Amino acid sequence: MGSHIDYSGLQALVDGGRKGGGSKGGGSKGAHPGGLRRALRRFWMWMLVLVVLATLPFFVLVRLGVFAYREWGLGTWPSFALAVAVTSLLLAGYAWGVGRRFGAGKGMRRFLRRSAVGLAIAYAAYGLVYVAGSNVKSDEVRAEYSTLHPLLRVATSVVFMVDPGSVITDAGRTPEDYYLWGLPVNEASLHFPQDDGFVHAVDLRTRGRPDWRNRGLELAFWAFGLHSLRHVGTADHLHVSLRLPGS
Question: What is the pLDDT of residue 122?
């Protein structure tokens, strides 16, 4: 009876530890959804950055060329060369940034830059000379591909990468084509070779395709600075054209 142990301080310490542990656990539990949301935001932000970085070179290649041709009047090949040069510099900048980020040596960074420039030139050349058989209505239309304006060829090449189901149904025309269709000859048609020797218009198939894909196709060419219009002439199609300088 003479010895009495006071447990009140020990009990208070235990209770405090429990409360602290509960608070810590509750805080961790409450912070989890917030951390997940931040991770998701960070993920989508990086995805957006990657999409922009991936599409920007193609946009510059076509849009800058079209702008230089129509607004600055540089001519066909100077406008095309300027667009390829700027796109090459952009890709070289990408390569420099990647090399520096991963600590590549000077020799490797130089190799990456040269490879990027070569890639830009190779793709531009590819768009000029090649169109897959699945992207043209017939062999006749495929033979007309080389008569299209170079910027129009590269633009369709970029679009075909994103929408490989797109099909060119018509490119160059002659007055005899209009006679066969029973239509009056449109002397102002950009389907005829222009003063620079190139055809400035191309038609793409819209039949049998979802409206959202046709609309996306139209918007893509519009974003490149080309005139795009869906209308019914000899058939329902998307008419895409490169306007002449000053028009």
Answer: 97
Closest by alpha carbon to 99, among 85, 113, 114, 120? Answer: 113
pLDDT category, 13, cuts 50, 70, 90?
A: very low
Whose tokens are 């609309």? That residue is: 215
Displacement of CA 12 from its chain's centroid (Å): 66
Q: Radius of gyration (Cα) for the chain, nearest Å?
A: 30
Angle at the Cα of 214 (from 143 to 210), degrees rounded to 5?
115
> Can you give the pLDDT at residue 101?
83
Beta carbons of 69 and 245 less than 8 angstroms apart: yes
Give the integer Cα–Cα distance in Å for 47 and 65: 28
Helices (H), the chain: 8-70, 76-101, 106-129, 139-144, 150-162, 175-181, 211-223
pLDDT in tens, 106-137: 888 889 999 999 999 999 999 999 999 999 99
Give me the count of residues in the chain: 247
